[in-house]
Design a protein that fits this description.
Strand content: 5-15%
Number of helices: 10
Order of helices and strands: EHEHEHEEHHHHHHH
CATH class of the largest domain: Alpha Beta
Largest sheet: 5 strands, parallel
Number of strands: 5
CATH superfamily of the largest domain: Toll/interleukin-1 receptor homology (TIR) domain
Number of domains: 2
Shape: elongated
Low-confidence stretches: 161-189, 318-326
């Protein structure tokens, strides 16, 4: 399992550091990402604790905001303080050779060598990644994860990701089992078939089955069908995020596909069993079909959003309040 350490200042970039942490946890797993040392037991030398953890780390992300250099009330650079936690984290990582990626957030710039203490000047020449908190956050964090993957694999570490994610990512580990699987077209094909069956075919089959039971077999109230066309895609959208880590965009596309295929199938079933025209003949029939289509698509999107919010709240619970240490 890879080990990723996030170094940041609370007074500088706490919010976006938390968002980056959440995204890394989703990709690598909770135990693979270390964001803070608040859980250090009281009385423990946090410098030694950090040193011990960094010796186990594979990469350090240094979150650099606009107040990273000047972060205290007096305006003095915190990095000049020999007891500054961020300085000690970077210093230790440089000394033991842990790869470092500076992450510039919200328009921050890389510090020059003259802005840094002598033992941190090597940090100024590291190639930095940029992450914005606005609309580009997803694209920037995706690019950051690809950079982390590349560094991990160059060091002989294989990222802990699910099979589907591995198959759609361009980076591979030479001679690894997953790399060999990616080169083989059959495993890739099987992966896509499984993905489409779980997230497209299965929901459509369940909606069609519910329609057949409610309308044809049992002749129940149509409200049962409407409930089924909300509940089934809602669960599908939830599982799409929970197991595939696919976001709202994929949920909306798949939801539209599920809705379209389900509506067409329902029209066919009604047309063949009731001996009526398959294509809606009245404006009211077209409106009802459109309502089913939109309801299914939006329900799948909503299920996906609920899953992402649930996971985020779960991650916040896992982090929990910790002990005390010198403020970052």
């Amino acid at each position: 399992m890879p080990k990723v350490f996030l170094s940041y200042r609370r007074s500088d970039a706490s919010a976006i550091a938390g968002r980056i942490f959440d995204r890394l946890v989703v990709y690598y797993g909770r135990e693979a990402v270390f964001m803070d040392v608040d859980n250090i037991p009281i009385g423990t030398d946090f410098r030694k604790h950090i040193g011990g953890f960094l010796h186990q780390c594979d990469i350090l992300l240094a979150i650099v905001g606009t107040k990273w250099l000047v972060a205290d009330d007096s305006g003095a650079p915190r990095l000049l303080d020999t007891d500054d936690p961020v300085r000690n984290e970077l210093k230790t990582a440089l000394q033991i050779g842990v790869p470092i990626i500076p992450v510039l957030v919200d328009g921050a710039r890389m510090p020059s060598a003259g802005d840094l203490p002598d033992d941190l000047r090597e940090f100024a020449v590291r190639n930095a990644a940029e992450v914005a908190s606005g609309r580009d956050f997803d694209a920037h964090t995706e690019r950051l994860i690809r950079s982390i993957d590349r560094i991990l694999m160059e060091g002989g570490k294989e990222p802990r990701v699910d099979d589907f994610t591995v198959r759609i990512r361009p980076t591979t580990v030479q001679n690894s089992p997953r790399h060999n699987a990616i080169k083989n077209d059959k495993p890739r094909t099987r992966s896509w078939i499984k993905y489409l069956f779980r997230n497209l075919v299965a929901p459509v089959i369940l909606v069609i089955l519910a329609h057949y039971l409610v309308v044809v077999k049992l002749n129940l109230n149509y409200n049962y069908l409407r409930a089924a066309t909300i509940f089934i895609p809602l669960c599908a959208g939830f599982l799409l995020f929970w197991y595939e880590r696919q976001g709202p965009g994929a949920a909306l596309v798949l939801g539209a596909a599920v809705g379209g295929m389900s509506v067409i199938a329902m029209l066919l079933i009604v047309g063949l069993t009731a001996k009526v025209p398959i294509v809606p003949a009245t404006l009211l029939d077209w409106q009802e079909s459109a309502e089913y289509f939109v309801g299914i698509a939006l329900s799948m999107l909503m299920g996906n959003v609920i899953a992402s919010l649930f996971l985020k709240s779960k991650l916040q619970f896992w982090q929990g309040p910790g002990g005390t240490r010198k403020a970052k």
